[in-house]
Structure formats: C-alpha cells, structure tokens
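Table S7 (text form). Paired inputs.
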Amino acid sequence: MHGHTLALFLSLLFPSLQVAAEVGTAKIMAPWEANGQLFQVGVDKLQFIGTFEGIMYIEQGDGLFDAALFTCPSTQIIHVLNNQISGQGYCTIESPTGDYVFAEFTCDGEPGACKGKFTITGGTGKLTGITGESPMIVRTALSGTAIDGESGGTVSAAKGLAVWPEMRFDVPGRSATSGLLGTGPSEPEAKTPDNPEGSETIEIPDQLGDSAPE
C-alpha cells in the first residue's frame, strides 16, 4: 500500500488517532527581575550582561505556558548619545511538570521599552520538537546600579514586564491546546499496571500494512 493511501485508510478507520499539527495561541504577560553587570565598551556605548528571571501568566488563549518559570541569560548594548538599545538572549522555560522549552530573542528600542521577536527552538519530554514564535515587548519599570569594587564593573538590577501578545506554538504529535505545560485540560492517559483506570487507547495491528486493501 502506498504511503498516502495507507495514511488515508488509517484516518478513516481510526479518526480518534489523528492529532493534527494544531497551532496553539496565547497572550502572555510576565513580571521579571534582572541582575547583571554594566560595562563601558565605547565612548558612547555601554554593555549589560546579565540574567532575566520571572513567571509567565496566560492572559488569554491556550494554557501551555501558564505558571511557567523562565530564565534568560542575555546581553544589551546601550547607545548613550542616541538613547537606543539593542538586545539578544536565550531563554529556558520550565514547566510545573519538569519539561523544558528553549527559546531565543532579539529586540531593539529605547531604554525602558525594547521590542522584537521571540522564537521557540525546541523542548524536552512531552515538548520535544516544539516550535513557535511571538512578537515580544520588554518594559523596564525600575533600575538601580552599584559599583562592584572587585570587577570594576557596575552591578545593575532592574524590574519590569515582558509581554508576548501572540505566542503561536506547535507540538508535533500532540494537541497544542491540551495544557501540556501549565493549566488547562490534560491529555487522556493510557492504561498501565499502575494506572488501571486510564483512558482507553486503540492499538494498530503491526500487520495492518500487509492486510489492508491497496
């Protein structure tokens, strides 16, 4: 049986097995705190190297990232004369169940408001193969600095808010709207010796490809 014919036959015979490449969407907000060091790297240029940390909250949409913790090591270049900043970094997002999502971002703007793009690059466990992206807005509400006598740099601390207005994501082989990472309805579980009450599953016979009609 040809591959596409078999796929069509299986979809008609076992419609409940179909898990489409369903795209989830969410609007996410996250208060964050950042700590790092600020260095003068040019006549009118400063560089911040540090880490942003916070908790994501779903304002509306699918609950994939609700109550997820994130840590984002990043760097920012501050152009003093024209009052512009550019930043980039990487993020590790940890689910309450212990799975991880990895992402990267870039942004540009003025001090206090940086806008850019957030791209999901992969995940672990149930979230292996996850992809997605969203515009990203980083607002800074409060900052403070202090001289580090040992390094000669300036320790900088800041607080603010990050917003992902339209996070779109896809988890291969799973429903993107099933609350895989956070709140929301969970996926059916298969019966196991430790979980005899689990949801019923359908198994496809190994010989189906040989016995099914062409």
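Next pair, protein 2 of 2.
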Amino acid sequence: MVDRNVSLKQMNTFGIDAQAKLFARIHDVSHLESVLEQHSEESIFILGGGSNILFTNNFEGLILKNEIKGFKIIEETDDFAIVESGAGENWHEFVMKCIEQNLGGIENLSLIPGNVGASPMQNIGAYGVEIKDVFEYLDAFHLKEKEMHRFHADECKFGYRESIFKNSLKGQYFICKVAFRLSKKHVLNTSYGAIEKELQEMQISEPTIKDVSNAVIKIRQSKLPDPNEIGNAGSFFKNPVVPIDILSNIQKKYPDVPHYPAPNDKVKLAAGWLIEKAGWKGRTFENRYGVHKHQALVLVNYNQSKGEEILQLSNQIIRDVEDKFNITLKREVNIL
C-alpha cells in the first residue's frame, strides 16, 4: 500500500514537519518489489529510524520506510555467534536482545538512535567500537536491477562514519538484513575514560557486558537530549581527523585540547569542543532552535523550527570553526 501526502513529523527525531508525496512502509522484499513496479519513475528516499536526517523541504517523491523485522542466530560455536537482524529493527533494542543472550561486542554502542539497517551505512561507533569490528555481511536489494546482493565487510569500504552506501552506492540499495559476529568470550573495551569512571562510580571492578552497556547508557543520557523531549539527531557533525601540525597549532593556545590517535599519523579532535570554543554552546534563536546547552555537538529543535533554519545554523557553525581553527567540520546528518 502506498499513501499520499504523509506527514513525516513523527518519523524524524528532529520533529521537522515535512511531507512526503508518496509513502510506503516496507515489511518484506515482495512488498518492496510491488511498490517499485507501481512507482518506477519516482525519485526514492529510504527512511529508517529517522534519527540521522534533516528535512529542509517536502519530499516530492516516494519514501520507503524500512520496517523489515527479525532476529535469528544463524551460526554458533563455543566462541561466537552470528546474529542476523532485520534492517528495520530498532538498534538499541537489538543491542539489548544480544546482551540478554550474553553476546558481546556491541555493548559500547548502546542507546545509539536509529535502526539496524543504518548501522553499516554509517559505520556507527562510540567509545572505541565501530560496526566494522563486528560486521559479518548484509543483504540489500538493488532498486534498479531488482536483485538481492550480499555485501561482506571488505566490499562495504568502511571508514569513519562512512561506507560505500553513503558514497558511490548512495541511494541504490535497500538494506534488508544485517549479520554480526558477536563474542561469547568477552573482551571488554573500557579504554575511554568516561566508561572507566562510570564503572568506578557504580563500584564495579569486574564488569560484564551488561555493566558496560549500563555505563554507556548513563553517560549518553547525561550528555544527550532525549529526542522524545527535544527534537535532535544526536551528533550533527563528525569528529574531524586532522594532521598533527594542526593539533600542535591549537595546543599553543589550548594545551588541554582533547585528542585521540587516528590512522596515518593523524589525530581525531572533538567537534563538540571546537564548537564550544567557537562560542556556540547553548545558543538559542527565538526559543525555537539552537545548540544544546550540555553538548555543543547537538543541534536542537525546541519548538516548531524549520529544517532550513537548522541547516543555516550548521553553516554558520562550520564557518566559525573554520575561521578559528582552520578545520572544516563535516555534517554527520543527512540533509534532504
């Protein structure tokens, strides 16, 4: 079934009131094929959990809402299990289900918004873990060729918040299932200081994967606004990876600038710190939108703001950070 002139306000975590000319909820591949046959000439956008999108206009085409469900262990040994999930499953609920079955590797990715299908597209990551670390394969339907293809890790071209599905194959595939190789013999990653500190405050000296997950959830809830209360898409910008000489220049004025090692003799800087130092943290405009008061990386819709206003705000932030630090921030959020 395809609906017309559908409001997208409840389907994006920014709470932007945009409309789709055509809209279909996709529950399986046969339904997807049928919808594509009927509307082959329309421009198409695939919508997951709506947590990484900023609508700046109505969409004058067909939006396919991915609601393919499922959870299945398809292979298991004493050391690991390969778990296959429908791409339309909620990511955090999937993480919780895996932890309940004592399957580790994604506990550091607890409470990240969005659906399972977006996790390899974005190569989502947090607290020292990325999807590429546990990714096994995904099955995706090519919208033009009408064929199902399987992609393994080396074919996905994972990078920092990047994959082939955000670049050369953008908009060409509808991800249906994603499989992960999760551990039964856990190697915890608590290298990020915030996790260690939280575990200490919880008086836990020998943490389980559930303990690490609880610590991550507590940290995220303390830093990031709940999109059910304040419209937002989480981190709006990527943390920039820069040459060491840029870090050295910044350290002359800000010796305590947070930084982390990155490949190829580069360093990763905290975009939120750069935005805060550029004077944007907590700024609001007409009490309708602005930069969150606790986390400068998050742009927020307080009350009926337009997507175009938030986009222009992001442009101003990019310019100011570039002027102050000679670093060009890149948006993590997709603009439509």
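The chain has a mean pLDDT of 92.
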